[in-house]
């Protein structure tokens, strides 16, 4: 019985890993493009700075907390969605930038 449970657990974990997606968010014109995403736990969000100046992407949401730091032009950074809690992403340099992330 223990072997079956272990096998089922491994199969479930692999199916989540295999179905995880990468979502690309462009930082351009002092905006996040797109400005709204619907993602799943395990997905990755990639931030790509296409502006001619630095950006930042962070969230204070405790369940998915991250801060990519200073992101110069052309830099690409990644964050993994860790919790089913939805959150907002902001840029500390440009406070009007907002990305709404809904986690399903």
Describe this entry's structure for a reader.
This protein is α/β, with parallel strands linked by helices. The protein has a single domain (21-103), classed as Cupredoxins -  blue copper proteins (Immunoglobulin-like, Sandwich), CATH 2.60.40. It is 17% helix and 38% strand. It is built from one helix and nine strands. The strands form three sheets. It has a four-stranded mixed beta sheet, with no helix packed on it. The chain has a three-stranded mixed beta sheet with strand order 3-9-8, with no helix packed on it. Strand 8 (87-90) and strand 9 form a beta hairpin. The longest helix is centred in the N-terminal third of the chain and has 18 residues, at 2-19. It is elongated and about 60 Å long.
Query: What is the SS-derived class?
Result: alpha/beta
* Helical fraction: 10-25%
Count of all domains:
1
| SSE sequence, one letter per element | HEEEEEEEEE
Calculate Rg over CA atoms.
16 Å
- What is the CATH T-level topology? Immunoglobulin-like
The CATH C-level class name = Mainly Beta
Cα(first) to Cα(last) distance is 32 Å
- Quaternary organisation of the protein chains: single chain
Largest sheet: 4 strands, mixed
Order of strands, widest sheet:
2-1-4-7
CATH homologous superfamily caption: Cupredoxins -  blue copper proteins
Average pLDDT figure: 89
Extended strand count:
9
Number of helices: 1
The CATH architecture comes to Sandwich
Q: What overall geometry do the principal axes of the alpha carbons give? A: elongated
**Binned strand content:** 35-45%
